[in-house]
Amino acid sequence: MMSDRVKDAVDVSGEKIHWDQDISYGDYLDLETLLSAQKPRSGEHDEMLFIVIHHVAELWMKLCIHEITAAMEQVRIGELGPVSKMLSRVTKIQAQLLQAWEVLSTMTPADYSSFRDTLGQSSGFQSYQYRAMEFTLGNKNASMVEAHRGHPERYQRLEEILNAPSFYDLTLQLLAKRGFELPGDVVERDWSQPYSANPAVEAAWLTVYSDTEKYWDLYELAEKLVDLEYHFQLWRFAHLKTVERTIGFKRGTGGTAGVNYLVKALDLSFFPELWSVRTQL
Length: 281
Hints:
- By secondary structure, this protein is mostly helical.
- The protein has helices at about 5, 25-30, 30-35, 45-75, 85-105, 110-115, 130-135, 150-160, 165-175, 185, 200-210, 215-245, 260-265, 270-280; strands at about 10, 15.
- A two-stranded antiparallel ribbon has the order 1-2.
- Strand 1 (about 10) and strand 2 form a beta hairpin.
- Helix 4 (about 45-75) runs antiparallel to helix 5 (about 85-105) and helix 4 (about 45-75) runs parallel beside helix 9 (about 165-175).
- It starts with a helix and ends with a helix.
- Residues about 1-5 have low confidence and may be disordered.
């Protein structure tokens, strides 16, 4: 006997489509929640663009954190096989984040000014996920946690990330486990402080890069980290130029120095010896 599910099928272009599913596309993705999250405050046309771009960026950052965290665990246990795929995925996501600035750049200064006052003191500077990514990759700054003190769970999580080894810290610990001689204050230190370049670390990477066949997995990891930082810097630069194009040198909505603050970020490096070693090759 034909089931009710089959009897209720609808013939669409020669295909039998069943509508009484246990879970639909919209249910699985919780689209009602997702699509109702965009709530413009001003009534100005371009505010929807501004909100959607930032929502999409936060979703992509969520996936970046998911992949980077998993890759860090693989490095911690010394199993580098899956890391290449995970970090390759992150760089593809970074390309999407970079492209988002191109879409946002279609908003003119006049467009942004029409609703900027409705943002109040909100700012991308306050993005919890962006701060988590920066801390995870090694740009540690305890003062940046204070922006999240009003959200106890986020504040606690950022404190945990601040005081835990960064991706590069775990990578350097792996180098030590593989027999490279690294100073004790490199492999065990105050993780809440930003990492400072060390000649012994550069020497270790020089050995890896000088014999890639012998150290292939470490060499591949190093190049994936370079890819990650390279794309991060492209994103930072695109952010800077988009802000400059939209508001010039005005102060940011959250009280930052705007473009001047973003310029300083371009000098920050997550993995310094992976760049400096190229001069020695």
